Amino acid sequence: MEGLLVKEPPAKNVYDSKLVIEKENLNWLKDQCQESERLTSGMIEILCSFEKRLGKLEETILPVYQETGNLQRRQENIDKTLEELDHVINYYNVSKDVEPVIREGPNGTTLHTFLEAMAKLKDALDYF
Prior knowledge:
mainly alpha
């Protein structure tokens, strides 16, 4: 038996090569997990920074938004006031608008026109 070479069974070589392959796969998987962890950390940092910047933007924009709402209400109030002033100014102008018709009396114009002028004058008096 001294001259005989003892060969390992082929199964051991197969297991060894499979073990090497599995170790390589495990190392690759560890590397991928580390890379994934690094990318996740980077994304978390980016999202945290974005959240902070968005918060600062909201702090800046919120007062502008509120002031814009206030200005819009003021503008609406001014528009309504101007409409009412136009209405009031019309009452102030009634006397000069109907004066010629009233001076002529019901005989100088149609009775209907005269009555309309008198009604406008009465409305203006009622307003004041």
